[in-house]
Amino acid sequence: MQNLWHGGILASIADTVGGIAGATTISFPNDKINTIDIRIDYLKGATNKDIFVITELIKQGKHIEIKLLHEEDDLIAIARAYYSILRK
Residue 19: which domain range? Predict the structure, then answer.
């Protein structure tokens, strides 16, 4: 047993945090944000430690880069996600 996190858990964390970051660009409760596409590059195995996430809004909340780390210099994965924003 290697005590590594499954990649699906990391992808779920990235999508959730990316959606939250994108939601900062919309006005509630009328606007909606949905994931269109997410791509994740796994750089190394995530061990049984805390995971920290850094997001960067690339294009007004529609294109977001998400970095998953164990510590400041210990990058685990990088995700690039695209979201649709439905404005009402």
Answer: 7-86
Residue 25 placed within a domain: yes
Query: What CATH number is attached to the domain comprising 14?
Result: 3.10.129.10
> Does the residue 68 lie in any domain?
yes
Per-residue pLDDT tens digits of the chain, which is 88 residues long:
578 889 999 999 999 999 999 888 887 778 888 999 999 999 999 988 889 999 999 877 689 999 999 988 899 999 999 998 887 7
Q: Cis (ω within 30 of 0) for the bond into 29?
A: yes
User: Structure pTM?
Assistant: 0.86
Here the tokens at position 82 are 């695209």
